[in-house]
Structures are given as structure tokens and as C-alpha cells.
Amino acid sequence: MKPILFLPSVILFLIAAPLRADLLLQPNDFVAICGDSITEQKQYSVFMEDYFLMCQPAMGLRSAQFGWSGEQAQGFNARIGSDVLPFKPTVATTCYGMNDGHYMAMQQATGDTYRQYMTAAVEKLKAGGVRTIIVGSPGCVDGAAFANPKTTADEYNQTLDALAGIAQDVAQKEGVGFADVHTPMMDVMAKSKAAYGDSYQLVAGGGVHPNNNGHLVMAYAFLKALGCDGAIGTITVDLGAGTAEGTPGQKILFSQFGSVEIESTRYPFCFQGDPDKPEQTDACVLKFLPFNDDLNRYLLVVKGLKGTKANVTWGSVSKEFSSADLAKGVNLAAEFLVNPFCDQFNKVNAAVYAQQNQETIFVKSFLHFLPDFQKMAPNSKDDLDKVTDDGMAQEKSLFDAAAALVVPIHHTIKIADEP
């Protein structure tokens, strides 16, 4: 019998460094986001697709989510062929373990079964032509909402930590990537409770299903594991020369007297909520999670300032920065949560959710049972093929509708030199 692998989660966080982005995400990749009911919530998966479409770590990325409520690794392994591979994904992420632990203290048999079926799932995805695979660990449970007669939140988080160690070991042995979801979720949960009290919840429904704040942490873990480098764009302004330059996706239309007009086809990630209020919003956890530093750098660099500080106006918001900080580069995405991209970002987000909601219905109500339908109605192959094609076409049309909303954004940055 194989021993259970118990690795401290902090070690997992260090040794699971992402590989190079150009080896993991390539132009026109199709990313299958797979998991249990936490994936079926369609929130971290929506955040990931938002990032693919608007922040553009590679061009032409497409994704779909394949969440199934209550699922364990064994169930996922059984449905890969019917549910996931028909979409011909080139990249896949998995997030299992929450249900695999059976909401009990860790048992040897639990670890052995999880290892067996996660390994089988990886091998089946490889055989199905998936080039890049990221095995994700389970997240965590929140003691403020977790109530289970078989275990406590602290004990079950130890179980989830052990399963995270097994997931990481499977990824290493199979030569694929690993996303440590457990460690950052535990870290952000501890920090947010220290700031707002033990009643503050990163994970709500039954202490198992994250709020938007927890889902942002999950998206962060997967995007990092996929090698996203976070360099969204840089606007460099030389006040002395009266010039401005933008990196790809940031076209300078006009620059004069500290006013710079830009056309952007690559967006910074935008957030909902007030970062200074103890709400269950994604913005609220930004002070505890290096999302903007690691994944969302939209920089303004200003040269030629004569004074010691300057006022920067972007959209409807103005803020003051030191000249030294502006010379090094200020991350506008972090400093201006309300910015000219927000309205369009939210429209894309809503369209992505509509797409992923259709995927849940199509996969769970039809595609998963297609082999059974084919056996029950062997003379209806043409009709079943048409329904399959129509469902795939509808999913693609909804994706295209979301992608079409990523339109160029015209915006102005104004810089006023101050004494």
C-alpha cells in the first residue's frame, strides 16, 4: 500500500513554480476548466476566461468549464471521453479533492483512491491530445460556515492539505503542471479573518463553496500555474519631449502637455466591490493577495517631471503620486479600481457567464448521456449528431459573442506636474 504523501502546503507553494508561459499557453489554445461543484459555480472559471479574453496572456484563447456537482476524481475520470474530449481541448485544468476527502480525517484508502484516479485522469487527457495539463489541488473550508458531524474545519483542512500533496506528487510523476490552490486560499482566509474578524467568510455555502473573494484566489492560482506573467501594458510618457509610447495593445493616439490619449485592445483585469470594506467581493481580498502585482500590471511611467509629485487623472478619478514612483512606474490597475475599462469589462464578464451556463446545460443534460442515447436509439444517429453539432455551434456562438465585446477602449491619462 502506498504511503499518503503529507507535504506542508508552504513547501508545495514554493516547489510548484509555473513553467514558461510560451510552453503552457499558446495562441488559439482551447482551455478545458474541469472540476466539481466549485467549478460548476462558474466564478473562478469565468474569471479565468475573462483574463484570457481581455488580459490576453496569449492571443486567440478560448475556454469552457466542465464542472459537475458532487464529483470526485473517479467520476471525472469516467466522463472525460464523453464530456471533455469532444471539445478538442489543448489545455486542461482540474480541481478535485474537496469531495474526495469525504469530509473526514485523512485515511490511507482515501489518499490511495485519489492518487489512482487523478493519475488515470491525467493519462486519459494526455491520450486525448491535451498538450498542457494543470492538476489543481482542492481549496479549503471555512470554519465560519463549515458544519459537518464527521470532522471539524481545521481537521478537514488537514485532509485537503494532504490531498494537495498527492495532487502535486501526481503532477510531478506525470510531468504536468500543478496549481496549489490550497495554500493561497488558507493564507488569504487567515489574513482576511485577522483583519475583519473570524466571521468574515472566504468560503460561504456550507463552508465549502467560495464567495467571489475565494474564487479570485482560485483563479489567481490557476493563472499563475499556467505561466501568465501579468505584463498587461506599459504607457511611457516623457513630459520634456512631449512624447508617449505604449506596449503592444496600447496605441498612443495623441500626447501633448501631459495629456495622453490611448486606444487599448488589451485590458487590465477589473474588480467588483470596495477594497476597504469587509465584503465578500473580489476587490476586498486584493490587499491580502498579490493578484495585481503578479498578474495585472498596467503601468504608467512618467519621465521629465520637474516637481516632487504629480497629479494623475484617469477617467473620473484623480490621485497624487511622487515623481520618484512615477519614474519607476505606477500600476494603474491597482491604484484605479474604477477606471475606463470597467464598464466594458463587466459586459464581457456577463457574456462569459452566459456562455459557461450554456456549457453546463449542454454537457450535463445531453453530451454526457449521448453514448446512452446512441445505444437506445441506434437508428437516430443522424438526429443525435445534429443535436450535438447544434449544441457545439451554440457554445461557440456564445463564446464569439463574448469575444466580440472586447472592443478597443479609448481613454485619456492626464498628468499635472506639481511643485
Short account of what is shown:
The protein has helices spanning 9-15, 21-24, 37-40, 44-55, 73-84, 108-127, 153-174, 182-196, 212-225, 291-295, 323-328, 332-335, 342-365, 370-376, 381-404; strands spanning 30-35, 62-67, 91-95, 132-136, 177-179, 203-205, 209-210, 231-238, 243-246, 250-256, 259-264, 297-303, 309-314, 317-322, 330-331, 409-418. It contains 15 helices and 16 strands.
Structural descriptors:
419 residues; alpha/beta; Rossmann fold
Q: How would you characterize this protein structure?
A:
By secondary structure, this protein is of the alpha/beta class. The chain has three domains: 9-225, SGNH hydrolase (Rossmann fold, 3-Layer(aba) Sandwich), CATH 3.40.50; 232-272 and 291-341 and 410-418; 346-404. The chain is 43% helix and 21% strand. The protein has helices spanning 9-15, 21-24, 37-40, 44-55, 73-84, 108-127, 153-174, 182-196, 212-225, 291-295, 323-328, 332-335, 342-365, 370-376, 381-404, and strands spanning 30-35, 62-67, 91-95, 132-136, 177-179, 203-205, 209-210, 231-238, 243-246, 250-256, 259-264, 297-303, 309-314, 317-322, 330-331, 409-418. The strands form four sheets. It has a five-stranded parallel beta sheet, with helices on both faces. The protein has a five-stranded antiparallel beta sheet with strand order 10-11-16-13-14. Strand 6 and strand 7 form a beta hairpin. Helix 5 packs parallel to helix 6, helix 8 runs antiparallel to helix 9 (212-225) and helix 13 packs antiparallel against helix 15 (381-404). The protein is globular and about 75 Å long. The protein starts with 8 loop residues before the first helix and ends with a strand. Residues 1-22 have low confidence and may be disordered.
